[in-house]
Amino acid sequence: AEIKLLESFLPPKMAPEETRAAVEEAIREVGASKLKDTGRVIAWLKERHDGRMDFALVRKLLCERLH
Fold first, then answer.
1. Full-prediction pTM beyond 0.85?
2. Which of 14, 30, 53, 57 could pair with 49 as two cysteines, CB 3.0-4.6 Å apart?
């Protein structure tokens, strides 16, 4: 019950489709083209979506996209 109460104060998590779209936007905005650009993309995303995004999924998407 306590966990449910605490979760009600957190921002809603982004859906996987929203996360994928945000990752694509970040890649374009940062100009990422290689896997070594991952840190810059994640920093860009954290500035805009911290607390709402599953960054494990973000890393997976970046590895697939920039590999």
1. no
2. 53
List the one residue out of 46, 41, 44 whose CA is nearest residue 61. 41
Q: Helix, strand, coil: what percent of the chain each, to 5? A: 70, 0, 30
pLDDT per residue, tens digit, the chain (67 aa), is 899 898 888 888 999 999 999 999 999 999 999 999 999 999 999 999 988 999 999 999 999 999 8
Report the interhelical angle of 38-49 vs 55-66 (nearest 10°). Answer: 140
Rounded-to-integer distance, Cα 1 and Cα 49, Å: 27
